[in-house]
Fold each of these.
Amino acid sequence: MVQRIRRALSGAAATLRRDIEVARERDPAARSTVEVLLCYPGLHAIWFHRVAHRLNDAGAHLPARLLSQVARTVTGVEIHPGAEIGPGFFIDHGMGVVIGETTEIGENVTLYQGVTLGGTGKDTGKRHPTIDDGVIIGTGARVLGPVHVGEGAKVGAGSIVIKDVAPNSTVVGNPGRAVVVDGKRVDPERIRHPVPEHTRLPDPVAEALVCLMRRVGHLEREIADLRAGRAPAERDDKDCMPSVQEELAAILGLNGTDGVDPGPAGGAGPR
């Protein structure tokens, strides 16, 4: 019995130390351990949750909920006692974060203020997201329903995710759409030490508009050549129209490019 208590206390102490280390690693504003202990509501919310979760697992559901409501009042973070949260979890700033009952969160996950990991409707059973290791979810993002966010993924600030997110991808927009980061797969070594780089998130809508502007410019030059009796110059850049069609389809909630007809010469037109 004594050994079991010692092991439990040792494990709890190790978890607390890791929580503090994670805050110092991921927030450059953290100057000291004392500052983290006293001034980080995200850290306090996690510690409240660890106790509430133990109570919930032991069948003390009402005390667990009461403790979670105390934590909500004190920290501004609401975590249901039933949520499963792995080690290395960090909530930066914390205010307005909501994590639902059947949420499952892996290791080394980072959330920023205003994030919601919520359900949809009045479904029972598994109705909240599953977040794999090393995921970063930006300010004000909403991940709704029993969706799966893969390892090392990033969810941009303000995004609304209602579909599964592939590992090592970046999702932005409403509804959330996967985009490529710098044309490269995320380095697997960064999964354990994620770097947010929110200012470098691509904007797929802006990219589509830039593509259309380039295409209009090319068509205008082609018309000018034809009017002058010259053969139109060959294009010296890759046709970006297929990516625009995919973007329009994603915005309209269509499958693939259904509903977007390339039309003659690859031009987009309604069906």
Amino acid sequence: MPTRPQPAIVGARVYLRPPRLADARAFLAATQASRTLHGPWTRPPDTPARFAAFVARYGDRRSTAHAGFLVVRRDDHALVGVFNFSEIVHGAFCSAYLGYFGFAPFAGQGYMTEGMALALDVAFRELALHRVEVNIQPTNTRSLALAQRLGFTREGYSRRYVKIAGRWRDHERYAMLAEDWRTLRRNHHLRRERSA
């Protein structure tokens, strides 16, 4: 069975680490400040109780079904965004879903691009996945651009796929395979360090 990643995965400008209850104040403030950025596409935890449930699901290093990471800027430890692997399945499937969102005012500065490259490296090298799938609403141009920039391949369109903010939403389906990432990883000039 693949091992869960160490506490922090460090890149050139950002690092990834699991969420902690101590992050609640900063996370909830970032969520509040990012409502316009998130629009109709995502509903991050916005109360202390919802954040605690988020940490219980994605911050537990013993879980083999979920793995979550906060994207943190190295310079000042500001919360930049989130990457979550859900429904991790091994065996013949070796796959997971990846969800993500960024925080204002860091959008458009390349932090999430670096963070996603680090997250994909964890998925394929440490979690030993073969496939990572993202599902993105067609009007979410920033998220679509991020997935395309990293090299995800569009595989289809899912009508009324997920209920968000009380409405069933269509999604475009993209995937990245381990063999894709072995080639694409070089394009992202990925430099990883470990931090305890």
Amino acid sequence: MAEGFEKFIKFGDEEEVRQILGNRPDRSDMQPDANEDFVLEEDLETPDIRPVRSESGKPTVVVIDDDYQTLDIMKIYLARDYECAVFSDPKEAIFYMNTHLPDIIFMDSYMTVMSAKKMISIIRLYKEMKNVPIYFMVYEEERDVFEHRKDTEVEGLITRPIARGELQKILDKEKLREYLTKD
């Protein structure tokens, strides 16, 4: 029996566990890749799923951050005029964007679950999201680091704590107000 397999047996008989797990290769001896955060676009498959625009007619704003206060503030600022989706886990945001096309994305520049660079490379796999503006949410002391980097593939930065005026300038710059005045 493979090492570690016995801990699953207490939840069901051995045959049931084998059916659930299948004949998976034993990966206990594999070493983690030193470059696990580095993903090349050609290493990723283009998804078959195509996201679509919101049916509400409001522009969709996606916010990804592991700080719940920032998520709450952004939702309060955006809820009236925008379709706002907030996520503390980048993986949940990716699942959401499989079916929902955002008009703009605000994301934490340092995430614990997945690197921002990896997250951007996944977002850019979708041809519909190639030109969706992405803004990093950074603290004032981090601004200089990101303003001088050319490899981030982001439209710009927004300083934390998020100020309503600075947020509105970005939304106006990206012309998201046009959605609200059509009709």
Amino acid sequence: MIVAVAHNKGGVGKTTTVVQLAGELKPEIIIDLDAHQGIAIINGRRPAELRWDVRANLDKAALIKLLKAVGEHLVLIDCGGFDSELVRIAIAAADLIIAPSNDDITEQIGLVRFNRVLSEISQATGEPIQAHVLMTRTNPSRKNFAAISNELTRLPHLTMMTSKLSRRADWANQMESGLGVTERAATRSSAAGMEAKALAEEVRSKLAMLTKQY
């Protein structure tokens, strides 16, 4: 199964999302399509025995070959904050697409553009593609996301996730050591840890539903 974390706007929390999911879901492979190669750099900070199998610097042929060989393995993809042929290939191949964002006006504009990209990919592949919007970097006390939920009803290729990754210092603090918050005992049961586990559980549930459909 392929989970792509994608949004063609930078700085929305894609790499943070991938790191937290990887800590819980234990993917066989992580593909780093980000020009900054954040996942590859963070992986280098992990203890040697815990390092992920990260594939970066892939060209088109290598990416397609890797995606075709996934089989039953779990693959996470950090698509990077831009639109490109490689990113579109990854999105088209994904079983589940997660689009980190928040609901400020600039990111709402970004989601409108991303919806357009997903529409173009859907037309090119002949398959309806929908991404699941994950609220990130929001105030931890914030619970009402009605404004962005209402906006998404006008964007047919986007739908809202239940989970969120609020603005918390624990994300960056643990990534300094290359770890997700649930990989360290001190933060596994923290507020950040609970959010990361809830996200992983929602992703597991969505993937299980897809498996039944197949």
